[in-house]
Design a protein that fits this description.
Distance between the termini of chain A: 107 Å
CATH topology of the largest domain in chain A: Alpha-Beta Plaits
Order of helices and strands of chain A: HHHHEHHEEHEHHEEHHH
CATH architecture of the largest domain in chain A: 2-Layer Sandwich
Order of helices and strands of chain B: HHHHHHHHH
Shape of chain A: elongated
Number of helices of chain A: 12
Number of strands of chain A: 6
Oligomer: heterodimer
Distance between the termini of chain B: 11 Å
Number of helices of chain B: 9
Largest interface: A-B, 16 and 20 residues
Helix content of chain B: over 70%
Strand content of chain B: under 5%
Largest sheet of chain B: none
Number of domains of chain A: 3
CATH class of the largest domain in chain A: Alpha Beta
Helix content of chain A: 25-40%
Strand content of chain A: 5-15%
Radius of gyration of chain B: 17 Å
Structural class of chain B: mainly alpha
Strand order of the largest sheet of chain A: 1-4
Structural class of chain A: mainly alpha
Chain lengths: 294, 192
Amino acid sequence: MEIMNIVYPILSIGGLGVVLGGALGYAGKLFAVEEDPKLGEVLEALPGANCGGCGFPGCGGCAAAIVAGTAPVTACPVGGAAVAEKIGSIMGVEASSAEPMAAFVKCKGTCEVAKEKYTYFGLDDCVMAMQLAGAGAKSCSYGCLGLGSCKKACGFGAIEIIDGVAVVDKEKCVACGKCVSTCPKHIIEMLPAKKKVKVECSSKDNGKGVMAVCSAGCIGCKICEKNCPFDAVHVVDNLAVIDYEKCKSCGICANKCPKGVITGKKPAPPKAEAKPNAENAKKEEPKKEEAKSE
Amino acid sequence: MDLILLVLAGIFVNNYVLSQFLGICPFLGVSKKVETATGMGVAVIFVITLACAATYLVYNFILVPLDITYLYNIAFILVIAALVQFVEMFLKKSSPSLYQALGVFLPLITTNCAVLGVAVVNMQNEYNFIWSVLNGIGSAAGFALAIILFAGIRERIEFNDTPKAFDGFPMALVTAGIMSIAFLGFSGLIKL
């Protein structure tokens, strides 16, 4: 009888455990939810940084949306083309249209070329500076304040403040879009990383207004518009805007720009290098020759 | 009549959280938002009701006949853990929306001592099957009531200008204490 004091508990509790375990195992099979095997694979292919750059709650949400078909295979801006290709092969879709994007700061109003309204001694934060009179110290109301809110927002160390203007390192930028939403001046934009031609100014002031505050701003002279062979540049609200569907990165506009506001200059004869910084914007005559020389 | 009183006693008089101080962990942990608190409350009602039935059967048909009632703690925990797992699987399959709503709270209930507490009280008071289940429902409803009220209060306190030293959890603990004192007013109202 003594021995039964040990045997009964072992048998009953052990048996209970075995029965419940078996029942759970059976239930696990019975109630197995059919998860799309693609979901795991897509999740595996994603970077797993959960940065939210895609607009979904983390990589899991993005993977679910891709598998469900509500998001394109290129939905992950961080992974870029490589990840899109992997996901594309999982989903059986060509991911050829994946164009890597990168953030671009549309301002080149560095300390030397742009004037300041007053000396700012506040916190090193653009959002704070925006609260003050005149929305920051820079004379140009569109210009980069250079206090580095975007730099702080960037989780990849891709933004540096150089000469009072934020500059994005294209190599490091993963196009998560954090800086775009952080910049209180709204001058950071996602642009195709491969396109060399970009307008480095956001000012919608007229030519005279721009000239008064910054020597490197777009004055809306329309020279780029007139010279573009592909009809890709247009001046909208006194600011050159490039249509990347049409732009072939030929660089003609960049070479023609009298203010040097457009990036992506082609290595042209020395004459062309010097001319874009010429003070007078309206004179197009001497530049037609350069166009031919290219 | 006794059964109605039993349920009411579970909700107000013998409130597991505020009178018996069981299940404090989820009470403090999952009570920042009314929405999640409601989810937790509903999940607890669901699990405790099932657990009461299951533990009653295990106790009276396995432990008592074998005269090994001293093992009730281990047996109950085993049953409750398995039950929660099973409920989780079942919900995932049958009602994904409810599964999503309850989310992490379901597995959390495994370690909720209120569940074990109700089972033990049922055993100690030698309730029959129906009484056990009803006591479970009442107690769980009491838990749900407490956690939802608490979450509502915490949501409001969040916007108040509390002294720095009391910010956050200290304030929650003070609140819980005051709620407990308030529920003390029910004590002795119902005698079973």
